[in-house]
Amino acid sequence: MTTVSWVDVDEDAGFGIENLPYGVFARPGEMPRVGVAIGDRVLDLAAMSAAGLVEDRHYFASGSLNAFMVAGRPAWRANRDRVTELLTDASYRGRVEPHLIPVSDVELLRPFEVADYVDFYSNEHHAANAGRMFRPNADPLTPNWKRLPVAYHGRAGTVYPSGTPIIRPYGQRRTPGDPEPSYGPSLRLDFEAEVGFVAGVPSSAGRGVPTSAFRDHVFGFVLVNDWSARDIQAWESQPLGPFLGKSFATSVSSWVVPVAALEAARVTPPVQDPAPLPYLRCDDPWGLDLHLEIQINGQVAARPQFASMYWTPPQQLAHATVNGAPLRTGDLFASGTVSGPERGQRGCMLELSWNGREPLELPDGTKRTFLEDGDTVTIRAQAPGAAGSRIAFGEVTGTVHPPQP
Amino acid sequence: MTTVSWVDVDEDAGFGIENLPYGVFARPGEMPRVGVAIGDRVLDLAAMSAAGLVEDRHYFASGSLNAFMVAGRPAWRANRDRVTELLTDASYRGRVEPHLIPVSDVELLRPFEVADYVDFYSNEHHAANAGRMFRPNADPLTPNWKRLPVAYHGRAGTVYPSGTPIIRPYGQRRTPGDPEPSYGPSLRLDFEAEVGFVAGVPSSAGRGVPTSAFRDHVFGFVLVNDWSARDIQAWESQPLGPFLGKSFATSVSSWVVPVAALEAARVTPPVQDPAPLPYLRCDDPWGLDLHLEIQINGQVAARPQFASMYWTPPQQLAHATVNGAPLRTGDLFASGTVSGPERGQRGCMLELSWNGREPLELPDGTKRTFLEDGDTVTIRAQAPGAAGSRIAFGEVTGTVHPPQP
Predict the structure, then answer these.
(1) Which residues form the Fumarylacetoacetase-like C-terminal domain (chains A, B) (predicted)?
(2) Candidate from A116, A170, A323 with C-beta closest to B156
(3) Averaged in consecutive runs of 10 residues, what is the pLDDT profile of chain A (405 residues)?
């Protein structure tokens, strides 16, 4: 299928007719509403529904995607098909064009309200690198790592939209060798490049979501920057895991890429050995050929490849619910840092500078071990789309601000 | 101050005029609304406000306490003073009595919507016992334990009201000595007796809540049962902490005891050595003389003493926000298992049966290592109140149901 939109679109930018990601936007002085990105414009779905052009059961005039996300896969597909029709059939142009707004004229807001936030640890390169640094005398991977997708709950209340300033956190940390812990702004502020998915349709308590039901519950994917304070994290994490080293901020991209837009990006994931337990088996290949790019102050720092993830999104969801914990609309699941076997594919400064011992040199010659005040970190991603197209994720960006006294 | 209510109250039961805890209730066929417990009755605050007897800015007709919790300390105090006046001045009796409903005629619902849920680990006896069992060759306490109140984020979406059935969770676990992990219902299902507090007034991002501001943000206290699957937890927890071993269910009591009702219960907490960093210092004593009682199937299993907690609630809150993570209305913070130096004071089966090696014998002769299907666990607590009164916490109870296939 080849479809061409009557909207003028730069195909290389990845916001063409095969993508159609959802977001929440506002123009100055107006209420937030739901829109779809096409090229460098936003299609105002609230106005479209008021004009009778798309079906709406009060999904689109609200300030979040949650009402639409709960509606389920038939509603998602119907709207996607209808928007595709409206943007490709030139006979609609006269009625639709008034509802296309330049992205530069709007503010993009947090696309959905987060219920619970779970962060996985599903990239073997990242987990092994972290193991080598923090547990040098043990196996890089803990014994459970290839048996289940390790994860923990993060703080839902500090999931922020792209562009939110990141205030360097205060906290308690102890440098190895110091007899006493000290208090002050984090000295090892880091980013983590991740890919997340958000649940739309809830599930029942007491019953898990099998891998085969992934698309019935999951609305779409976002980019995630799970900001981390490595010194705070290292000191606090035993025995119950990360807490304040993570909970100050997590940024998500403004656009949610529908699951349907990523069908052409699905690839066979790495071989899993040992074979996972039956509840984690997945008949369909659910690796995703997403190419991430991390920039620090506009300079390329790394290019992680999401196809290298050991555990896939349906496996993550099946695991997170196997104990009967129900899904809620807005539950966000992040992949964990996306890294690769090469240094230029590592997804955080902890790995890129090997815990500060080998500074990263950016193309313009500046060097970093961890992030400095004023640094801007931007993560982008593209994937192959249907009919040879490209699917872009909206960027997730944030600038480090000095600590507040 | 001695105050006497015209409502007939059994003072020993702890729901007298010095307590006045808040909850959410519904009568069959009616909408949920906010009420206050007095004796064995509920004062219907929604009806009281409709009758012009209490001030209400739409706090009380909603199905949760959140709208009232966000109103802040002056509103909490004004309503408490007014309810005290109405229930003690006999001249109001004729107008108020129609709005007193027997507790036995109503259903008590979850009192508030949980934003984020944080679980601490602040009892030294519990932490040391767990350390002895799980890390027998190391110090019972990790090096950070007396420097900061260790905590992790739990799952807000599975915080349930007292009485909710607890379905035994499925999961992946490996018995020590087994070469392979296996899948099935948890074989080591446990409870944890805890005390939680809930935030009412939000705080700003980037700024912590000092220990001195605790009462400006915190609405009240509840009892918490942090149900735990020890076999799932033990296998999954390295390196990022508990996840599915905890996230299937957490129960909270139906009544929220206002902070103001616990002033007479405040005691000096255990000496902290080493002295905590300045951000964790607390000028006022914030130990709480709460006496917990755990029953299994109506038989007393243990009597933990909350006054033995090493870290106090204001210290927990200051720590959880020191990195600039803002508070949201409905944020729930649980203490961690309350245990004591004696076996009869331990707050979970893990400790009471020493990880299953020493079965607990209940007064009627039944023995337990961990919980069996059909077991009902009920936690209650009392504290000294003003003028020699007693302050009761509403019970938190739950019955273990068989796993769902």
Answers:
(1) 119-388
(2) A116
(3) 83 95 96 97 96 90 96 97 98 97 97 98 96 90 97 98 98 87 97 98 96 98 98 96 98 98 97 97 95 98 97 98 98 98 97 96 98 98 96 98 90
Non-local (6+) Cβ contacts of A15 within 8 A are A9, A21, A37, A38, A39, A40, A392
The first and second tokens of residue B47, run together, are: 């009806």
Round to the nearest angstrom and report the end-to-end CA distance of chain A. Answer: 57
Measured CA distances, A330 to A197, A198, A333, B233, B354 (Å): 9, 6, 10, 25, 39
Nearest to A350 by CA among A203, A205, A185, A226: A226
Q: What is the DSSP letter of A305?
A: B
Please report the ipTM that was assigned to this predicted complex: 0.97
Residues 6+ apart with CB under 8 A from A176: none
Measured at the alpha carbon of residue A272, what is the angle toward residues A269 and A277, in degrees to the nearest 5? Answer: 120
Catalytic residues of A: 126
Residue B231 has φ and ψ, to the nearest 5°, of -70, -40
Name residues whose C-beta falls within 8 Å of residue B198's C-beta, 6 or more positions apart in sequence.
B69, B112, B218, B219, B220, B221, B222, B256, B330, B331, B332, B333
Q: Beta-carbon neighbour count of residue B176 at 10 Å? A: 7
Closest CA to B236 of B336, B169, B137, B311: B169
What is the CB neighbour count within 10 angstroms for residue A177? 5
Q: Name the amino acid, one letter, at B377.
A: V
* Contact state of B241 with A237 under an 8 Å Cβ cutoff: yes
How confident is the model at residue B404, as a pLDDT?
87
Note whether B150 contacts A244, CB cutoff 8 Å.
Answer: no
Instruction: Return left, alpha or beta for A58; rule: phi > 0 is left, psi -120 to 50 is alpha, else beta.
Output: left
Q: What is the DSSP code (8-state) at residue A217?
A: H
B245 to chain A: which residues are within 8 Å by CB? 323
Average pLDDT, chain A: 96
Beta strand spans in A21-127 (E) = 22-26, 33-38, 41-44, 100-102, 107-109, 117-120
What is the sign of the dihedral through the CA atoms of A179, A183, A184 and A188? positive
**Out of A148, A229, A240, closest to residue B150 by CB:** A240
Query: What SS3 class is residue B130?
Result: helix
Minimum-distance CB partner of B324 among A153, A248, A324: A248
* Cα-based distances in Å from B136 to A236, B129, B240, B243, B342: 21, 10, 20, 23, 20
- Structural domains in chain B plus CATH codes: 11-109 (2.30.30.230), 117-401 (3.90.850.10)
A146-181 per-position pLDDT tens digit: 999 999 999 999 999 999 999 999 999 987 788 899
Distance of CA A35 to the CA centre of its chain: 19
**What local confidence, expressed as pLDDT, does residue A240 receive?**
97
Helix (H) / strand (E) element for B49: namely: helix B45-50
Q: Is B109 exposed, middle or buried (0-12, 13-18, 19+ CB in 10 A)?
A: middle
The DSSP element (H or E) to which B216 belongs, if any, is helix B214-217
> What is the set of active-site residues of B?
126
What residues in B contact A404, CB-CB < 8 Å? 206-207, 324
For residue B45, what are its two tokens?
A: 């605050």
Using CA coordinates, name the residue in chain B closest to A235.
B144
Q: Are B41 and B100 contacting, i.e. CB atoms less than 8 angstroms apart?
A: yes
In terms of DSSP bridges, do strands B250-252 and B218-225 run parallel, antiparallel, or are they unpaired?
A: antiparallel
Measure CA A120 to chain center.
12
Length of chain A in terms of residues written: 405
**Per DSSP, what are the bridge partners of residue B42?**
B37, B101
Nearest to B203 by CA among B216, B186, B219: B216
